[in-house]
Amino acid sequence: MLRLGFRSLLPSPPLHADALRRRRREPGLPSREPRRRPGGRRGRRSGPGTVGKAPMRAVLSVEGPVERVARGDGREEEYDAIVIGSGIGGLVAATQLAVKGARVLVLEKYLIPGGSSGYYERDGFTFDVGSSVMFGFGDKGNLNLITQALAAVGCTMQVIPDPTTVHFHLPGGLSVLVHRNYNEFIRQLISKFPHEKEGILKFYSECWRIFNALNSLELKSLEEPIYLFGQFFKKPSECLTLAYYLPQNAGDIARKFIKDPQLLSFIDAECFIVSTVNALHTPMINASMVLCDRHFGGINYPVGGVGGIAKALANGLVEKGSKILYKAYATRIILEHGRAVGVRLSDGREFFAKTVISNATRWDTFGKLVKVDDLPEEEKNFQRIYVKAPSFLSIHMGVKDTVVPPNTDCHHFILEDDWANLEKPYGSIFLSIPTVLDSSLAPEGHHVFHIFTTSCMEDWKGLSHRDYEEKKELVANKIISRLENKLFRGLKSSIVLKEDQQKLANHICF
């Protein structure tokens, strides 16, 4: 029987993986990939994640050394666990097991670790594959999950605090800068909407109530009944708070306190960054986690780029006696009597373990690695109900620094003319300029631009290679022109390097 055993009910950008466990069956639950329920008001974020910020499933709950046993057929178990993919979620699962004494094998199809939290280099520029907005590097509370994951393998990373989370450029000339300091942010928002002062304070106070409840718990797992039972007796009030808000969305709660349509649209934009859907489709717990942690732990950029997180975890994994195998393309999860027992690679090699953990997307895990005929009924039901959220077109550019005005913020969200375009393909633009924080990512006199915009994979299917490239160039040029008109005069003429590509929905989240 297949069991999803390493999942998150709350957003995290990178700390997520789906595990196929052998011990017992458990009803399937939605992963943190962005999903939209037709006609409903709930949404989930990726992602891609999309960083690092959610409680994760307790593969961490292995206590003491792991006992190695022989298989019933006489074939010795080579590993205690196999992890498919070396994204941050997979690496955290692997390292947490390794530090408890398990022997773990990580299978990575590329030459470097990280997945959508990886990096690549071109002509002296270092590009983050995915988001540059990094949560989880704080030094207090229980939600600093990247800090905790690195500490487990004896690693620390130098980070650069970002004084702002994002600069919103919105219809009607609305410009809102989300300061790291919460009081500064609230003062600025009230100055834009003085007639909604009370509503603003009440809505964000609700967010803090939820965040404080989460931050008070030792968030190892939200799926193990015994663990949750123990947490309830330790923190009954906090657990009841989370239970109350679990079925509620941010849009309905905002409307309890706020009436101004433009301010409600701003709340939609706040939630869109969290979940790629508006506030009415974003769970209140998900929204609160991000909208508060940006002020509590803050956004902190790792020196040298986001890819350093995966490299540090991979090195720590090896130092703990486990192994990561590169250029290892997994094509099939091996099942015996409905249980995951191993992994087959494209070159025919097979590896076996007591536990198989997939850090691939849910759709690749159930449908490619596991045959459709072998899916558990709860997974079939999930896939019938939920559909994929938008994908992203991602553009990486190297530009001359003369095009970037002094004191430009690192992260921007642009929606120029019409709030109705918020969720439409190519309607909004996400922009990160990580060299504003770390100039070592580009040659002297240059900046890195990383641009995202939502797109639909269906619009790109069936195109010839030539048509695909021409369409990609056309869309990219339109996006760049919009940035040039809105923020960066002369942007096109300043470009010295440009690469663009289509990315799957659940890999990237700003």
From TrEMBL:
Pathway named in the protein's UniProt entry: Carotenoid biosynthesis; lycopene biosynthesis
Entry keyword annotation includes Transit peptide: yes
Biased composition annotated in UniProt, kind: Basic residues: 34-45
Catalytic activity: 7,7',9,9'-tetra-cis-lycopene = all-trans-lycopene
Major subcellular site: plastid
GO molecular function terms noted in the UniProt entry: carotenoid isomerase activity; oxidoreductase activity
One biological process term in Gene Ontology: carotenoid biosynthetic process
Cofactor(s) of this protein: FAD; NAD(+); NADP(+)
Official protein name in the record: prolycopene isomerase
Organism: Phoenix dactylifera
Amine oxidase domain residues: 88-454
Keywords: Carotenoid biosynthesis, Chloroplast, FAD, Flavoprotein, Isomerase, Membrane, NAD, NADP, Plastid, Transit peptide
